[in-house]
Protein: DUF1877 family protein
Amino acid sequence: MSIIAYYAHVDEVQLDLVHKQPSVVWNIKNDPRFAKAALLDLDKDYEVLAWLLSSTKRGEQVHLVATYRAAGRQIESKSLGENTDFDALLSEELGKLGVCPGATDGAAADMVLSAIEGRGDKSQRDPKIDFGMGSARLFKPAEVKQLSAALDRITTADLQKFFDRKEMEKFEVGGMEWLSEKDSVLEEFLVPAFQKLRAFYAEAAKSGHYVFVIYQ
Structure:
């Protein structure tokens, strides 16, 4: 099952309406009470954009792939009656991926990644908006302006820099079969998806709106 990220920007009165009846989010485009508000979804492109634009995300993805592989090897070894050390297996798998153990430790979420994935701690989440995948990340108007400015600094060259289908296949980015894709997927789908997100945050910042990010 695909998990999709949704982004909404609303004013304070509209946010109160969402708090009272969260399901109204899905009808924002047709509800006259939500004039000048917006709802955007990027399907699963958000995962790929995060990989392309965030070193934090790339480090996390490398570690995730290595962890899954190490866990698989440990389960297999136990079925054979062997006793293996998980940390040793993880170190081996990171090595196979061309990553030195410890190289992905301690990375903090950056601003662009926060905008794309709605990252934040418990205090930055809104428990009143939850559709089963965790509380929404709520960005206040001042934060939205900062995120918009960060996204404005991103260029097409930034998106191109880490677009390598072989590497993205190796690290299972977005769960896609990258070797079956064409290089044109960048210009045809990923760049437009980023432009939509950047325009969304720009409009929210200009309007002085809140932004919340939810998953379903």
User: Anything to note?
Assistant: The mean pLDDT is 91. DSSP finds nine helices and five strands in the chain. The longest strand covers residues 5-10. The two ends are 10 Å apart (CA to CA).
